[in-house]
Amino acid sequence: MSQTSSSPRACPLCNKDAATPLPQYSRDEWRIVECTNCSMIYLQNPVDYVALEEDYAWEKTYAQLDKERNRRKSWIKRAARQMRLLNYRMQGDPNNRFLKLLGPGNILDIGCGDVERWCPPFVPYGIEISKAMQKTADAQMRKLGGECVLGAGAEAIWDFPKDKFDSIMMRSYLEHEVQVAKILEGSMHCLKPGGKIYVRVPNFNAVNRYISGSKWPGFRYPDHVNYFTVKTLKAVAAKAGFDFQLVNRHKIWLDDNILALLTKPTTP
Ligand SMILES: [Zn+2]
Question: Edge-to-edge strands of the sheet including 226-227?
């Protein structure tokens, strides 16, 4: 079932077909390209959703890559990672930051996995493509008044009613989504006016990508199908009608990830 799409994928930002191959960042049969019209970097031959669920479930590939990386890492790198995790924990509950940025209420966590990320005053809803993770997340979310549905984000989001959510979480999600425009249009539909999306995606323009080349941790084959820069993320957001705000705490070029808030305007 591990088949790729039969025809090359058009640019997820401008929908044009012309693209320049980036062989230095491609691996095996997976072709990373740059759109010649708008400079969007993307995977030209992603797997279809069925194969993604059955053969390339994110938890499987992630676990495999994590194992590979840990084997390669020296003890110094492992120690540095532990320091970062410690620092993260000392900053306290990540919900506090989300609360400040997003506010309380109904929140939709797309590609939520099975994490216990949410607590009141959020009422958590989720969409998850992996059956095993959806089951666990659904049980957790129902305890808090929400639910987690099984499916692909860009399809399942249309099952929610208009203006249902105060906010949407797209943490480590949008880089996996083949249908970028469709998920953002669906978000526009089910967010309340003034509602916000929190987006976290790998930052293709991070200095670490220039230094590490093809070993940059943002590359994952074939899971990551979009490689955003601030410019291209802002452009896809604007195309769907969202206002864009960068919320990285540090200089953006130092950060391996882009953190952004997309706001649905209060007046259409
Ligand atoms: Zn393009």
Answer: 19-21, 32-35, 41-43, 226-227
b/e per residue 39-66 (b: at least 16 CB within 10 A)? ebbbbbbbbebebbbeebbbeebeeeee
Instruction: Identify the three-state secondary structure at position 83.
Output: helix
Ligand 1 geometric centre to CA of 234 (Å): 13
Q: For the segment 157-185, what is each residue's pLDDT rounded down to a tens digit? A: 999 999 999 999 999 999 999 999 999 99
Q: What is the DSSP letter of 175?
A: T
Distance 228 CA to ligand 1 centre (A): 12
Question: pTM for the complete prediction?
Answer: 0.84
Domains along the sequence of the chain with CATH: 19-263 (3.40.50.150)
- Tell how far the Cα of 88 is from the centroid of ligand 1, in angstroms: 36
